[in-house]
Specification:
With 278 residues, the chain is mainly alpha-helical. It has one domain. The chain contains ten helices and no strands. Helix 4 runs antiparallel to helix 8, helix 6 packs antiparallel against helix 8 and helix 9 packs across helix 10. Keywords: Membrane, Transmembrane, Transmembrane helix.
Length: 278
């Protein structure tokens, strides 16, 4: 029988989201609240302190994403982030295998980590495939972002993906250039976080604001926490490296752009249906 394309979020997807939220929140509390205690509290010892706070920022952004998945009615409002999450989880699963000896195998957090990143890619991809079968086509009255905003977001998503893949594939190349100290494992972890930005590439084929709104909210949460983390651990930063300043300018610009886009799209419904260069 043909699937009814009613754009609903399937019950199994909501269950997956509900299961993931407390795990992500707990990881955020540990890594952002106690970044100096990862040896005692986490799956492996992470240093310097900025790295666990960056990872924690991604976790709280993910928690907000899955809270919305659990509550949202329309798949169009949440579907754009699933493939990026799947890529993130897959890369962390690969990093776990590549650096197996770096983990504290006797800690319960390690087995939760390993289970999560070996199982989550399959479950998240399965949820995306199942929900895509009931996704409804765009409606003509749905608000869309303009061509300038669309180009900026697509470019940013592409650059984030490229940066993330280089960090993951070539740690020896990136470690001497990076704004703070990394190991091969943490370099790959940071690379996986950057790959989350690939979600922005959705605007290439679908510029609806409905598709992008949650991604903007998640990016705002993550970037804000990362910048606050950088201030907290500013002693970890190498001020003499050009990439330190380029990354800071890029993060601040991306945060301001996300806030402006969200604000501009809050116009009354009688306003024009596009923004960002129309």
């Amino acid at each position: 029988m043909a699937q009814v394309r009613d754009d609903r979020v399937l019950p199994a997807t909501r269950v997956l989201a509900v299961v993931l939220v407390p795990i992500l929140v707990a990881a955020f509390v540990i890594l952002y609240g106690f970044p100096a205690d990862t040896r005692r509290l986490f799956a492996w010892t992470i240093s310097p302190q900025l790295t666990p706070m960056v990872l924690a920022s991604a976790y709280l952004g993910g928690a907000w994403f899955f809270v919305r998945v659990a509550r949202e009615r329309r798949w169009a409002a949440v579907g754009a982030g699933f493939l990026a999450v799947c890529l993130f989880a897959t890369l962390l699963g690969i990093a776990t295998v590549l650096h197996w000896d770096r983990f504290n195998h006797g800690h319960p957090a390690f087995w939760l980590w390993a289970t999560l990143y070996f199982v989550a890619p399959v479950l998240v991809l399965g949820a995306w495939l199942a929900n895509s079968r009931v996704a409804a086509p765009p409606r003509p009255d749905e608000r869309r972002i303009g061509p300038v905003a669309r180009a900026v977001i697509a470019t940013g998503g592409g650059l984030a993906l490229l940066q993330g893949l280089v960090l993951f594939a070539a740690p020896s190349l990136m470690i001497p250039l990076w704004p703070w100290q990394l190991t091969p494992l943490t370099c790959r972890v940071v690379g996986a976080i950057f790959c989350l930005g690939s979600a922005g590439l959705v605007v290439i084929g679908d510029p609806r604001w409905e598709r992008l709104r949650l991604l903007v909210e998640v990016a705002t949460v993550m970037l804000t926490l990362m910048l606050v983390g950088a201030l907290r651990a500013r002693g970890d930063l190498h001020g003499d490296r050009m990439l330190t300043w380029l990354l800071a300018v890029g993060f601040i610009g991306a945060l301001l752009g996300a806030v402006y886009l969200w604000w501009s799209m809050r116009r009354p419904s009688g306003a024009p249906l596009t923004t960002g260069g129309d």
